[in-house]
Amino acid sequence: MNKHRIPVIAGNWKMYKTRDEALQFIYAVNQEMPSRDEVETVICANDVLLRDLVKRQGESLKIGAQNMHFAENGAFTGETSPLVLETTGVAYVIIGHSERRAMFNETDETVNLKVHSAIKHDLTPIVCVGESLEIREAGTTNEVVKNQIIKAYANLNDKDALSTIVAYEPIWAIGTGKTATPEQAEETIKAIRDVLASLYGEVASKIRILYGGSVNAKNIDALLAKENIDGALVGGASLDVSSYLTLVKAALNK
Ligand code: PGA
């Protein structure tokens, strides 16, 4: 294990699972979770379920949200305030997932505002970046992703940067069954660490950077074998108990 970086396995349930299904999952995995100084395990679920899930979380597994507004309150119909999220007891929040960027008009600027707001409310932001297939094919992936990082981290100090987690998720790999090769993932994640180092120096070696995009029980070992890949943000393969447990066990060997 890298001395500085505890691996993270974060499930992103998106808009899946009923309340009963979600609670059954939490009961089933709770006993199997390693301690948090070995692996940080997280499930990011639908807002409506968060309070119930937090009540049932064990010592190790923590619950996260999938989005929040940057403002504490206002005329933003249908949005979730970070103040309210805080009261549910969640510990994490995904910020800037590509589905939100593509379908709900999130921009690098709103991502930055949300990162600041999440930290202010003691929520660990899981900051998502990643390129489209066109960008990958044009050969400008690292440039585009670095730029997303610079904008997401604007005006964030060292201490706050350290409390963030980055998730590199190539858009073409999300929900498609097409994973980036471990080499492709490592190359871009290394570029992300380099840009964080240009902003934060030594602190960058302590920031966890996850890979996301069709991660499953079969490909997790090869991804985690890479030096800079500190865990995974997982959609489809986090919905099933045994597959989630396999991912967590793989991270124990990191
Ligand atoms: P996937 O989703 O694992 O189903 O590709 C990942 C994500 O969207 O975070």
| Tally of contiguous helical segments | 11
Order of helices and strands: EHEHEHEHHEHHHEHEHEH
Helix content percent band: 40-55%
The overall average pLDDT, rounded, is: 96
Lay out the secondary structure.
Layout: E1 8-12, H1 19-30, E2 40-44, H2 50-56, E3 62-65, H3 82-88, E4 92-95, H4 98-103, H5 108-120, E5 124-129, H6 133-138, H7 141-152, H8 158-162, E6 165-168, H9 182-200, E7 208-212, H10 220-224, E8 231-234, H11 241-252
Parallel strand pairs: 1-2, 1-8, 2-3, 3-4, 4-5, 5-6, 6-7, 7-8
The site of 2-phosphoglycolic acid has 13 residues, from strand 8.
Structural key phrases:
254 residues, alpha/beta, TIM Barrel, eight-stranded parallel barrel, 11 helices, binds 2-phosphoglycolic acid
How would you characterize this protein structure?
The protein has a single domain, classed as Aldolase class I (TIM Barrel). The mean pLDDT is 96. An 8-stranded parallel barrel has the order 1-2-3-4-5-6-7-8, surrounded by 5 helices. 43% of the residues are buried. The longest helix is centred in the last third of the chain and has 19 residues, at 182-200. It has 11 helices and 8 strands. Helices cover 41% and strands 15% of the residues. The chain has helices spanning 19-30, 50-56, 82-88, 98-103, 108-120, 133-138, 141-152, 158-162, 182-200, 220-224, 241-252; strands at 8-12, 40-44, 62-65, 92-95, 124-129, 165-168, 208-212, 231-234. Strand 7, helix 10 (220-224) and strand 8 (231-234) form a beta-alpha-beta unit. By secondary structure, it is of the alpha/beta class. Helix 7 crosses helix 9. The protein starts with 7 loop residues before the first strand and ends with a helix. It binds 2-phosphoglycolic acid.
